[in-house]
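Researcher: Next entry in the queue.
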Amino acid sequence: MNEAPNQPTIRDGVRLWLRPPRAHGEVIDDRTVSFLELFYDLVFVVLIAQIAHTLAGDVSWSGLLDFTVLFSLVWIAWLNGTLYHELHGGEDGRSRMYIFGQMALLALLSVYAGHAFEEPADGRGFAIVYAILLSLLAWQWFDVRRVDDPEWRKGSTRYLLGLAPVILLSLVSAALAADLRRTIWIAIVVLWLGFVIINSFSADEATDDALRVTESMSERFGLLTIIVLGEVVVGVVEGLGETERSARTIVTGLLALGIGYGIWWNYFDFVGRRLPRSGVQSRMTWLITHFPLVLGIAASGAGMVSLIEHAGDAQTPANTAWLLAGGTAAVAASIAILVSTLPPNPTRRKVPFSLAVTCVVALVAGAMQPAPWVLALVLYASFSAVWAESFIRHARQGTFITEA
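Model: Structure for this entry, 404 residues:
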């Protein structure tokens, strides 16, 4: 007589719902980006907007330094959270609790980010919340280490040991004066980026395979780029909202918006949804280069507020010109490097070189400080020329520029 199979119990369902994270090496190549990840990325809209708004109100070298430091810390947090879910997360309760926990801390971080260098209390609050956020991320990576095969634990341990001093430095900075806190935060950014680069490029073959860039990872980096491009629109709207709307002001604003269009066309037609070549060097170059890309876009968006406010001037103020030109130059250089990490494509072989020209043109234009509308037009035309050259090459071969 056949025995009835054991029926699943509530305990079994809870155990499945709270199952351990995926171990290293269990990469899902055909995974799609979830609605929860989109929700997670939206929290960064608020956080990035806070620090970009501060730069827009203080277009100076010290303001740019503070913006760069805070943006770098935010990017480190986003990268850790994104890579964890890409490599180890899933549609389960444990993954959701981790992400919602991060989102709560990121919301608190947004409260302190806008005045982290101006108000001592906000600086301390930012440092403490950031340390807690990194501690949560460290626990998540430790949780993975517990289910990893022994061959993977060495790498996981090394990564956790790299996060430990960063968390400690962040906590220590909470008790320091603003200038010392800034120095500590700069050290955190430099140490973390250096640690990741050194360990990534010295990875073995197994690690290289586990850290391969998937379509979902490429999409997440593209989504972050879109989020930061939103700051360009915000900068234009804020600039038009804070000044008298004359014909010149509106034209300057629309041309500034065109710079954002040019960045979008170049990134998403040449890089978006495309995977880098195999090999850890190409993959890590692709990953790390997204940092100066989004930093440059966000800085450019902040600079557009001042650009529009001075639309009636004969010359763009020096700090504004350098902020906008330097930001777009960083974007052009980053896209050029990203294109070079992709598989060769004859219709795009000149794109890195034409983007290098765009980078030089942007810096020259910034140094010349033309009228704001002229500066915006030059930057917009430079990005447009890069896209047009590649479009013509595609057209001659009977292909669309949007084809991957």
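Model: The two ends are 60 Å apart (CA to CA).
Researcher: Noted, moving on.
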